[in-house]
Amino acid sequence: MWLHDDCSDAWWQDFGVSMEQSALMALSRMPKLRSEVLAVSPLSLACPFCKVGPRLDCANTAGGFAVVHVARIKKAATLDSLNASRAARKRDR
Length: 93
Description:
Elements: H1 19-28, E1 59-60, E2 66-67, H2 70-92
Antiparallel strand pairs: 1-2
């Protein structure tokens, strides 16, 4: 038999916990997603197009926005795929 036959959403009151506590308990039971490999930031690499070093923007616009060349982003994506394949090979061992 149900404690609340009217199917109310206040089931958590029957256990003597607040709604916030019940939400925290539900969140603590959720599986944690974890990345096996950290993504490579384009700013951590030297730009192959303009030869600027790591941690520096390729250029800045008149409005103050940073410019990062596509070649630098593609280089980071290539390293990401290499790291992911290495992690997969290491996991399969």
